Amino acid sequence: MERIQAVIKDTDTPSWIESVPLNFGETAAGMLKADEWCTMSTIYLPIALISLWGDNNQHAHSDASYFQEDAYLEQLKCWVSSLTHLHPGINHRVNGHMAFHIYEFLRLFGPVRSWWCFPFERLIGHLQCLPHNHKHGQIEATMFTLWIRAARLRMWLKRPDCPPALRECRKVFDKAFG
Predict the structure, then answer these.
(1) Where are the domains of the chain?
(2) In terms of Cα–Cα distance, which of 19, 18, 20, 24 is closest to 5?
(3) Is 114 left (phi over 0), alpha (psi -120 to 50) or beta?
(4) What is the Cα–Cα distance from 44 to 49, expressed in whole angstroms?
(5) Which domain of life is it from (predicted)?
(6) pLDDT digit string (tens) for 153-172?
């Protein structure tokens, strides 16, 4: 706590950023407001934690071992199975499914801090572009229909009897959608 208070005291921030109480963590400081928590978590805490961890801490290294990746997967499986056991009638959310993809991303791209939210942000971007008519509960059917349409279009574009005008469209389509 002393290190965090020292960072708050010693860090110069732009005038438009609200500061937090210098005695953060003490009863006299009171409760932080939402914007103060934002400042705390984006400015002061990272500085304090980095200076406390230093270079010799295992969390500062850029490589994760296969053991750590496998441990993540095992813990996730345990968590999901315990959710099913503890809450038998509840439908699972997409969060659990997406968490399993993190294991794949760890294997492909290394530690999370090297790629942060890129895969999920990209997926969210794709999902936001899908037409859904604001009808909740129908997005899955819409996504499947669009996927089938795209697959059929790809199949048509690869046919030998595809008209030349459509072949030109294939180049654009392949460039846009791979």
Answers:
(1) 2-60, 66-128, 131-177
(2) 24
(3) alpha
(4) 9
(5) Eukaryota
(6) 888 888 888 888 887 877 77
Evaluate if residue 119 carries a pLDDT over 70: no
Instruction: Give me the torsion for CA of 149, 150, 154, 159, rounded to 10°.
Output: 10
Determine the Cα–Cα distance for residues 65 and 61; give it in Å rounded to an integer: 11
19 in Cβ contact with 8 (< 8 Å): yes
Question: CB of 64 within 8 A of CB of 108?
Answer: no
Beta carbons within 10 angstroms of residue 5's beta carbon: 19
- What pLDDT, in 10s, does the model give residues 23-58? 998 999 888 888 888 889 889 998 998 888 776 655
Q: What confidence category does residue 80 fall into, taking pLDDT thresholds of 50, 70 and 90?
A: confident
Q: In this structure, which amino acid lies at residue 32?
A: L
Burial class, 45, CB count within 10 angstroms (exposed 0-12 / middle 13-18 / buried 19+): middle
> Which among 44, 42, 43 has a CA at the least distance from the CA of 7?
44
Distance separating alpha carbons of residues 127 and 139, to the nearest angstrom: 9
pLDDT greater at residue 142 or residue 22: 22
Q: What is the C-alpha to C-alpha distance for residues 30 and 127, in angstroms, rounded to an integer? A: 42
